[in-house]
């Protein structure tokens, strides 16, 4: 079965082909960070990695002696490590897992992301990156673990090693056909942006990296969004969607901070669905957990303020959530 995705042709497991077809259904989501995150959530569940704890993953890396990020693994080593990982998962979670299918699917995904030419080899760092990003762990713990993979003995990393880390990360949206929105494959602007956290220094420590990641830089904004997507899945908001009338709103809830009592469900907001005569006014607040009474009061006060603000105010204060890291000259594609 041949599939052409992101300029590569490769052989996919029939179940993988089914998964890619399901991902195509998410292309109607207007915002690339959300589209990418929701596609990744599908992949994470299909590979059963949403059940896998970071500590279990680290144990498997240690058992398989995958300590050197720069080392290269062949397919046999990858299969061996994946088999060990899914056996551990089945044992720890006491759930029945189709281990051969999961190993096949996960191998297929890893090769599509990191070995599209099918040379049968990938870096240890690539293997770890994919699994750590898709495991079930606190996002700060993921950031710390990934940073440690490119650190020297003193706990510092230089621009070259940070470039390597960000290059590995950007391959994930690239495989999903979403790389242009995150600055293309040129990670240098992101590296420079991160090093601004430590002016004049030739190496950064983990605190600088965490501070930068906390600003949700453009090149990796899809990762914190994936975590919000996961949390939002279980949220029920006691509100009615202004457009489709769904009540309660499940998942993300969006509220206009310019109009009173205008709540919108995630499907209507993310796909741009509107009804005649009902125009949505920005700025918009996103909730991925049910709101407290304090938050409701705060938003009411904001809405009141915004009522008296002009269009010029909002054009001067755009609601851009992430840290842009690219200058216009460096953008690979006009799609950004």
TrEMBL record:
Keyword Signal: no
GO MF term list: zinc ion binding
SMART domains per record: ZnF_ZZ
Residue span, ZZ-type domain: 236-292
Record's keyword terms, sorted: Cell membrane, Membrane, Metal-binding, Zinc, Zinc-finger
Gene Ontology process terms (BP): synaptic signaling
Compartments it resides in: Cell membrane
InterPro entries, alphabetized: EF-hand-dom_pair, EF-hand_dom_typ1, EF-hand_dom_typ2, KCMF1/Dystrophin, Znf_ZZ, Znf_ZZ_sf
Annotated membrane topology: Peripheral membrane protein
GO cellular component, one term: plasma membrane
Keyword Metal-binding: yes
PANTHER family linked: DYSTROPHIN-RELATED PROTEIN 2, E3 UBIQUITIN-PROTEIN LIGASE KCMF1
Protein's name according to its UniProt entry: Dystrophin related protein 2
Organism: Cyprinus carpio carpio
